[in-house]
Amino acid sequence: MTPTQIAALIVAGAFVLLVVLLAIPLVKLGRTLDEATVAIRKAHENTDPIFTGANSTLTHVNTQLERVDGITANAKTVSGNVSALSSLFTATLGGPLVKTAAFSYGVSKALRARRKRKEEPWGKHSRRKGGRK
User: Could you list the residue ranges that cross the membrane (predicted)?
Assistant: First the structure.
């Protein structure tokens, strides 16, 4: 064997060793990709029930929101009716009622003052300065 052939054998052995050393990580990487493919497939199979449940939940939420919209509209109508009723009450009965209340307050105050004068004839509200004799 010539030195060139020996060098070629060494280079060939080194190349085989390099291929074997690179083959091990490639085999491991292939197994990892297979596991990732299986995991993605399982995740894809399990998404149908999740999406179905989410879809039914959204349908239920939309139904409830429609009910809330109806309730809100009814509450708005009721508040408008109450506002109109209070305005009508104020316009029709408010003025006379306030006048009646003021009149009755004035009458009761006058009656109290009169009773007080009758009970204390020589008090500060008396017109006589010397009192009765």
Answer: 6-27
Give the C-alpha separation, 114 to 6, whole Å.
Answer: 143
Domain count along the chain = 1
Is 85 within a domain?
A: yes
Q: How far apart are CA 21 and CA 15, in angstroms?
A: 10
Tokens 């085989």 identify what position? 16
At which residue do the structure tokens 């490639």 appear? Answer: 26
Encoded tokens for 20: 């074997």
Query: Which residue segment(s) compose the domain that 74 sits in?
Result: 1-116
- pLDDT tens sequence across 22-42: 999 999 999 999 999 999 988
